[in-house]
Design a protein that fits this description.
Elements lengths: L19 E4 L3 H9 L5 E5 L10 E6 L16 E13 L4 E16 L5 E2 L2 E2 L1 H6 L4 E2 L4 H10 L2 H10 L4 H4 L3 H20 L8 H4 L30 H6 L3 E9 L8 E9 H4 L5 E8 L4 E8 L9 H14 L20 E6 L14 E5 H11 L18 H9 L10 H14 L1 E8 L16
Parallel strand pairs: 1-3, 11-15, 12-13
Antiparallel strand pairs: 1-8, 2-5, 3-4, 4-5, 6-7, 9-10, 10-15, 11-12, 13-14
Length: about 450
């Protein structure tokens, strides 16, 4: 077989051979992908033996019988298009994957073009390809052949490569970007964005402008300091000069004040210069003085909390509980939990710029974590494991409960919040402060009105 030789740019060496996977979806799934190139689609297929959870470059095959050889009437298998695929949940029978950024080719692309070597068909390479699943043998050859099939294919490869985590890596900085983006989208839903996944500023994120903080790459409005009794810009003013501080403001464009919030990211200078850091994310509702804090935690081997992590959590919890609050509660105070501190634990997944969503994983009330740490302190135990944490919330439910006023500490002065932020920057290294100025009514939880 003779291949076309399109002009192409060289990728960095780390990105020359991405993880590849082959998928054989049905016509209905391909129509969904073709209808909206930006929408993520979930798909279950038979292969369960994924070597890792990172993203793959997906080679999507057209269903059998969709294309025939016009001369002989023989069915020819072809490649429908390319996309980005990441494995998620697995069962005893199949594996669920998520496909995004998929596009079909304008012209037929023969699948047989992938298993040729030196212009000749390689039968052994053809046999090594999975019916459906990751390409684990001959991936370098398959990828090289894919790029040379036609100019159209090469254009799609060029488009998708920067969006794969293989090109972006799993560096500390990128994992912090992932955590910061997750907190931003989660808090934006609390603040009033009905669909944070459609948050246009996040979809238009510019990697080149980002530097240390994820929000540095957002298309927002720089905050101007206002009157002395207004808290807008106070976090940026307090922490400017200690590293990198970025502040952005966002308000609904329709003029109905459906959402109105300010986000400040503070990164300590030592973290800017390369020290490993962690994130504490603060949500503060001005009208009710409600505070919720998410500490982002990455468990170590076997999903155990390290001694340093346990000590840091205990110290932070003690500090948060010393926050000054109102001494009284109203008759409408039905809060389920007056503790502002929660743990956010991700599934093991990379930062991928193509995905504009909250990360997979769970949110745990701190009292459950404290109980697990206490129980694991008994002699002979290696330490608390995430497996011991059973009461958790998915991000969507957590956001709704905070929005309705069920979760969080109330009556917390903003000055006290900034003192906690200062401690975070000095210890964890990175703080995200989300200040919600909306005047909306709460649901059935606490803080139903501003004066409750």
């Amino acid at each position: 077989m003779t291949f076309a030789q399109p002009t192409r740019a060289d990728f960095p060496s780390s990105a020359r051979s991405p993880r590849l996977a082959i998928l054989r979806p049905d016509d209905g799934f391909l129509r969904l992908l073709d209808a909206d190139h930006t929408q993520e689609r979930s798909y279950s297929q038979s292969c369960r033996d994924w070597p890792e959870v990172k993203s793959h470059l997906a080679i999507l095959l057209a269903p059998a019988g969709q294309r025939r050889d016009e001369g002989a009437g023989k069915q020819l298998e072809r490649i429908w298009g390319l996309g980005i695929m990441r494995p998620v949940r697995g069962t005893d029978r199949d594996r669920s994957v998520v496909v995004s950024r998929a596009r079909s080719f304008r012209s037929p692309v023969p699948f047989a073009g992938l298993w040729c070597a030196d212009g000749e068909r390689d039968a052994e390479l053809a046999k090594s390809l999975p019916e459906s699943g990751p390409v684990t043998i001959g991936a370098d050859t398959i990828f090289a052949n894919l790029r040379q099939i036609s100019p159209d294919v090469e254009v799609e490869v060029q488009r998708l490569m920067p969006l794969l985590d293989a090109a972006e890596g799993w560096s500390e900085r990128e994992l912090r970007w992932r955590d910061e983006r997750d907190a931003l989208l989660l808090f934006a839903k609390i603040a009033g964005l009905a669909a944070p996944n459609d948050f246009s500023e996040v979809r238009l994120w510019d990697r080149e402008a980002t530097q240390a903080a994820f929000i540095g790459g957002l298309v927002g409005n720089a905050v101007q300091s206002m009157l002395d009794d207004d808290i807008r810009g106070q976090a940026a003013t307090r922490f400017s000069g200690i590293g990198e501080t970025v502040v952005q403001a966002f308000a609904s464009r329709a003029g109905n004040r459906r959402y109105d919030f300010e986000v400040t990211s503070i990164t300590d200078q030592s973290v800017v210069e390369g020290r490993e850091g962690a994130l504490d994310a603060y949500y503060y509702h001005v009208d009710t003085q409600t505070l919720v804090v998410l500490r982002y935690v990455r468990p170590g081997r076997n999903w155990l909390f390290s001694p340093d992590a346990r000590h840091g959590l205990d110290e932070f919890h003690g500090r948060v509980h010393r926050l000054p609050r109102r001494d009284w509660r109203s008759t409408d105070d039905y809060s389920l939990l007056d503790d502002p501190l929660f743990l956010r634990i991700h599934e093991p997944e990379p930062f991928t710029a193509a995905l504009h969503r909250t990360s997979s994983g769970a949110i745990y009330p701190y009292d459950q974590v404290a109980a697990a740490i206490s129980a694991a302190a008994e002699p002979g135990l290696s330490g608390p494991s995430v497996d011991a944490l059973t009461r958790h919330l998915v991000p969507t439910h957590f956001a709704q409960l905070v929005r309705d006023g069920w979760f969080g500490a109330r009556g917390v002065p903003f000055e006290a919040v900034l003192e906690c932020v200062k401690a975070t920057v000095n210890t964890a290294g990175v703080a995200l402060v989300f200040v919600d100025f909306s005047l909306r009514q709460r649901g059935n939880g606490s803080g139903i009105t501003a004066g409750a």
